[in-house]
Amino acid sequence: MKKTISLICFVVCMQTSFAQNNYVDSLKTVLSVTSKPIDRFTILIAISNTAFNGGDTDSATCTALLQIAQQLKNDSLLAISYNIIGQYISRVKGDNATGLDYFFKAIPLAENAHDKRRLSSIYFDMAIVYSNLQNNEEFGKYIRKGGENLPDRSHPMYDFMLVQYQRGMATYFVVNHQPDSALVYAQALTTTSQRINSQLYIFNSYFLNGAVQDQLGDKEMAALYFKKAVAQSDLVKSAYSQLRFASIYIPFLLANKKFAEAKEQSMQLLNGFASDNNDFKLKGAGFMRMVFDSLRQPDSAYYYAKKEIQLNQVIFNQNNINKIQGLAFNEQIRTIEEEARQQKEEEQRKQNIQFALIGLGIITFVILFLLLSRSIITNTKLIEFLGVIALLIVFEFLNLLLHPFLEKITNHSPVIMLLALVCIAALLVPLHHRVEKWATAKLIEKNKQIRLAAAKKTIEQLEKNEE
Prior knowledge:
The chain is built from 18 helices and no strands. By secondary structure, it is mainly α. The protein starts with a helix and ends with a helix.
């Protein structure tokens, strides 16, 4: 284990000096020589985190995480797995509704594990989904819930979660045009992002402060902040942050008649920031149309309007493909969950069978002890009561033992299974009556012998006293 952890630490440290692909390849190399489930889980988390910060992830990483978490039966790991599956489905596949389903699955698991760091992460990811759906009220609701569930200040991830909360609240108030409230969180975001030295959140702090200053009417200060954000943008791989920045900055440029720079920024979006992201391109085409509308060049504006329509169609088609792929992925997840459920039920059934056998053994021992004891006079009612308990335990034992077999041959039909259990009971009850009759007769005979022995002993004692 120490060797594995050392390898992970080495690879993590090398991330800053290697390209992302090299970093992921290094992680996969470590993964290939790692057998312990919890260590494999840690490496897979590092791979998925790298992917979400600018690379491509795949369903295999998600399913592997869930399988390990199910194997280890750990609520915290299950919460992490469902959190990452939700991220994959919503961000990569664009299926926001299904992504939210997985986030909601993760919440009670994180609560059971008292894992506030994970719980806040889930709420922040849900907020991003609602932001993508342009539902700002739900966005604000889940940002606040994430803030209410921040880990303790002593937690090593506290600042990382705090900076997400500050970014979310600043964004929420900017969208709602409440600059005074937004300013508080934007300034706090600047302080925290610089303290943790995060290029991503420093970038966010710059353009959110720019948006706040713009809404407050200080155009010069807004331009200064936006200029800092532009200089920082090349270091940022997050698609969400790049789109948020463009959606704020380009309208600012258009409003201030800086058409050349607005065109330049729009072209970067249209080119997908050197990636093949159609959402970027769609936004870029829309802004290019707005630029040429402002420049009163209708032919160019019409060209980009047509490009918007084409990109909308491409995105629609891709979303349909993603949904089809998502159905297959969801079935993989459902199969893993079903296998885990069946395994849990089988283990519970075996445990219940053991308890039934123990209970039956205890009752049988007590009955035999009472029947065979040569010194205890026993009430027949007690034997009858213990006999009924034994009958119920035997019936439950046979039910547990035969239940999987009955399900298989009856094809899960409740009516046929009930009839089968009635037949079993019909065989057990007469047998119980015979055993009970034998036990009662045996008990009466034993009690007579005890009483007779006691009487003989009393007579002998009296005869000795008379002598």
